[in-house]
Amino acid sequence: MLRLQLRKACAMSDHKANYPHEFVKFLNACPTPYHAVHEIKKHFDEYGFKELSERHSWDGVLTRGGGFYVTRNDSSILAFTVGCQWAPGNPIAITGAHTDSPVLKIKPVSKRSSEGYAQVGVECYGGGIWHSWFDADLSIAGRVMVKDQKTSNVRSMLVDLKQPLLKIPTLAIHLDRDVNQKFEFDRENQLLPVAGLESQSSESSKSCEQAAPQEGEFFSIKAVVERHHRDLVDLVAEELGIEVTQIEDFELTLYDHKPACLGGLHREFVFSGRLDNLTSCFTSMHGLTEALKTGLEKECGIRMMVCFDHEEIGSSSAQGADSNFLPAILERILRFPAISDKSGSQHDSSLQMSVARSFFLSSDVAHAVHPNYANKYESKHKPAIGQGPVIKVNANQRYMTNSPGLVLVKHIAERAKVPLQLFVVANNSPCGSTIGPIIASKTGIKTLDLGNPILSMHSIRETGGSDDLEWQIKLFCEFFETYSTYESKVYEPST
């Protein structure tokens, strides 16, 4: 199966010089976590990976020498390859990232109006720099639950309206002379996007008739055309080629309509939203498939990448890093008879042995030193864009890096000729965190935190480095290729 795709993997890897361009295309195709998972699935499909479902048996599908992926909620994805020499108790090399970013999401009842303007109610998701959303051209994307007219079954469809539809206008300086000293606003009442003029609205008695329950009918929740502006619902239906009455519900997100692009005098920057953390989704995805070019015939371990949803709000969800997604899939893989050489009901210590020998590279973006605020950084730890991935260290365990892990990653980076940087937050500054501490405490797997440096983290428009993409892909590729044979040299040194 997967072996037939190795020739293609080698051919496709020749495009690595175009990683910055490929990343820009990836960013523009991924306005939401649902779109990101869809694009990642397409990538693995090209390499012959097979989709697994948590709802169904994996009999006859999961084998040594194969590549597979599993999704949950269409917003988290886990992909892996099984070495031909895999045996129970052997190590697993894992990279981890997250698909979500701080955004504004449309509320379940979003229809608003004020002073002749049609407005859309939005909810703040995550810790965004919300003032950066003012005056941006905003579009809408997300997932729509659609009812089949013949069967009445409901399915999920992705939508991206791909046009500037909304604007959160700032107040003119003439009406707020202190705006350049301090920009303050009420997030509930002054972060409301303008969607149009009420005088131009196509709201009609016809739409009200369609939305209203017929005699004898009962609806527990009002129809979408009652809860949202009819013009918005019409746009969604038109984009999907369906009738408005087929829309049961949707989860829609606002995003910056201005496309991602390469910038700087030498195109050394990537300008885009969602660099946190589609950067690591992109690099781990390519790292796993780049590693295919050496084949799986001699591989004794499992190589895995996982991208979780909901990191920006604490990871506590059914598809977040604090869920059972990774532990459940690990147990299912390691207990599976076809690759465990044991009956499915036999429980032994092989799962714990594999966990003890495994390693998790928690990859999230890092803070690049800001030239205008250099005093905010620890004086000896100032990561620079274009100088390679950043290993993040924190004595209070906000990051999981320790000396054995650092030594292991250092040696892997030296083999791949990838430069690394170190970051420690200043003692007088707060420190963020990642999925690393959650996964380490939940699974017991050894973990290290690292990521590519960016500026303006959590802004609607962030800045990253185009060269750093290849550095991280090379590091992940080397990690996948060599970890299973190298880990004992660090964690079980000879005496």
Automatic annotation (TrEMBL):
E.C. designation(s): 3.4.11.21
CDD domains cross-referenced by the UniProt entry: M18_DAP
Pfam families to which the protein is assigned, alphabetical: Peptidase_M18
CC per GO annotation: fungal-type vacuole
Needed co-factor(s): Zn(2+)
GO BP annotations listed: proteolysis
Catalytic activity entry: Release of an N-terminal aspartate or glutamate from a peptide, with a preference for aspartate
InterPro entries: Peptidase_M18, Peptidase_M18_dom2
Gene Ontology molecular function terms on file: metalloaminopeptidase activity; zinc ion binding
Keywords, alphabetical: Aminopeptidase, Hydrolase, Metal-binding, Metalloprotease, Protease, Zinc
Family assignment from sequence similarity: Belongs to the peptidase M18 family.
Name of this chain's protein: aspartyl aminopeptidase
Source organism per UniProt: Lachancea thermotolerans (strain ATCC 56472 / CBS 6340 / NRRL Y-8284)
